[in-house]
Amino acid sequence: QMTAECSTLEQLRQKLVEIVKCPVCFEFVGTSVVQCARGHGVCAKCKERLTECPLCKAKYTVEASIMLASIMEQFPKMCDNQKQGCQALCIQEHEQFCEFRSTKCRVSDECKWEGTLNQLVSHLETQHREIPIIKITNENAINNYDPFLVFTPSFTFKKWKPVIAYDNFFWKRTEIDDDRKYLMIKFYHLSKGKPQYTFYAVQSFVKSNLKYSYSMKASTNNIDEELNQGDPYCMVVPYEELFRFFSTNSYLYYDFVVIRESRKQ
Predict the structure, then answer these.
(1) Measured between alpha carbons, how far is 39 from 56 in angstroms, rounded to an integer?
(2) What CATH number should be reported for the domain whose range is 1-75?
(3) Start and end of every RING-type domain (predicted)?
(4) By the 8 A CB rule, do 8 and 40 touch?
(5) Cβ contacts of residue 60 below 8 Å, gap of 6+?
(6) In whole numbers, what is the pLDDT of the chain averaged over residues?
(7) Which CATH entry fits the domain spanning 132-262: 3.40.50.40, 2.60.40.180, 3.30.70.3040, 2.60.210.10?
(8) Residues sharing a CB contact under 8 Å with residue 148, sequence separation 6 or more, in sequence order
(9) pTM for the whole structure
(10) pLDDT, position 201
């Protein structure tokens, strides 16, 4: 019964979306809708270059429809990403988590690719095969490493690693700077749709009987921010601790796992 009701509501939503689209540019007509003598509407921007209705050839009326404008004012606007393929209404933080929102590749400074979130994985798999995506399907830790030449004076290291866990995409950001004398790691969740889970990345440096571990809550905030030592979402490892975990070949080995928790409704 509930499934049938949801299906009916979705069909109604799709019909309403089509009704409030401008027949010229196919975007939301907005509150400045202009009508012809037979009641067909276009957006004010398209009306500027029209002398007659594109649907019935009738002339446009001078009077604005107060009732229709009031309805449009209350109607949720279309997602700003509709030109990229999104057909959803902008409701409940939709645009923040829209799968058609713009994003860019971060695996190297040389790559200038920009596209939509739902195109990102395909780009990484075809254009950056040398940088494999870390794929996690359960809560078992995987072993990985980063090569750091930290013994070079004024060494700076910055790396973005793509991660897919439980069908969700993440960026794992790692930075190290000799001037600041610590390593920082932050985990970003690029969610397609409003997140149903809270994700945590647990990174553990292990060598013999030594272990340094930290649980990072995945951030959905500004991914272009500058990392800072006081960020509770950021793993910060001082140099004096970090040096204890380097291998003889200057590699830093670690265990990495992603955990998810259901969000409270």
Answers:
(1) 10
(2) 3.30.40.10
(3) 22-57
(4) no
(5) 34, 35, 36, 37, 47, 50, 51, 52, 53
(6) 83
(7) 2.60.210.10
(8) 155, 157, 176, 246, 250, 251, 252
(9) 0.72
(10) 94
Nearest alpha carbon to residue 234 among 179, 176, 173: 173
Sign of the C-alpha dihedral, residues 146, 147, 151, 152? negative
CA distances from 144 to 133, 137, 184, 255 (A): 12, 16, 17, 6
Identify the residue whose tokens are 């109607």. Answer: 75
pLDDT at 59 over 70: yes
Examine the pLDDT at 122 and tell me if it is beyond 70.
yes
Strands 210-217 and 114-116: unpaired
Domains 78-130 and 132-262 share a fold: no
pLDDT for the residue numbered 101: 92
Closest to 106 measured CA to CA, from 14, 228, 190: 190
Q: How far is CA 73 from its chain centroid?
A: 28
Q: Rounded mean pLDDT of 255-260?
A: 91
% of the chain surpassing 90 pLDDT: 32
